[in-house]
Design the sequence.
């Protein structure tokens, strides 16, 4: 059985991708999902929620000493719009997910990336992606894990998307 956080380095690698409240408010959910879907990555977990303060604090625990931390947690949790949390699966999805999002500061994000195409400010950068296998395991476990929340499934086009020859 595949662990819920996947198997890094294989076609079953998994990452946690989120559309933040500004991305939801601005109607960018379908675009962000569509980019991963069209690339060939497989959606194995999806939910819409207003995260609790506890969840946001734990998700961003590494940043708890930063001056922007309180504002960041408020932005994520104040309920002015929900967050879409997703788990995507496929080859190199952790590193490629980060490439697809673009640089943390949208002013440094290239055209063709999500942030480079749709946003302007580091505090409203519309999306999140795990930055390493360790982060992906932590974040998938934090946002998902209820029974049946992650689905292992075979796509009919798997053989047309993933092969080494
Ligand atoms: N952030 C912010 N101000 C900053 C730096 C970061 O508000 O000066 C927020 C921003 O939403 C960013 C998040 O904190 O996406 C997490 O920061 P990190 O460095 O982990 O960037 P990411 O992994 O999201 O690219
Ligand atoms: Mg980060």
Sequence:
């Amino acid at each position: 059985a595949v662990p819920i956080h996947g198997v890094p380095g294989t076609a079953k690698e998994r990452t946690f991708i989120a559309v933040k409240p500004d991305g939801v408010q601005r109607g960018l959910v379908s675009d962000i999902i569509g980019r991963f879907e069209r690339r060939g990555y497989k959606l194995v977990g999806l939910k819409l929620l207003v995260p609790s303060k506890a969840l946001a604090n734990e998700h961003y625990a590494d940043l708890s000493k930063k001056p922007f931390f309180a504002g960041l947690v408020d932005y994520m949790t104040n309920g002015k719009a929900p967050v879409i949390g997703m788990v995507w699966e496929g080859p190199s999805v952790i590193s490629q997910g980060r490439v697809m999002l673009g640089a943390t500061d949208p002013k440094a994000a290239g055209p063709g990336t999500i942030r480079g195409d749709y946003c302007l400010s580091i505090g409203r950068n519309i999306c999140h992606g795990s930055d390493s296998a360790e982060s992906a395991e932590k974040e998938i476990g934090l946002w998902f894990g209820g029974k049946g929340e992650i689905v292992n499934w075979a796509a009919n086009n798997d053989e047309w998307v993933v092969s080494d020859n």
About this structure: The chain has eight helices and four strands. The first helix runs from residue 21 to 25. The pocket of magnesium ion (ligand 2) is lined by residues 131 (CB under 6 Å).
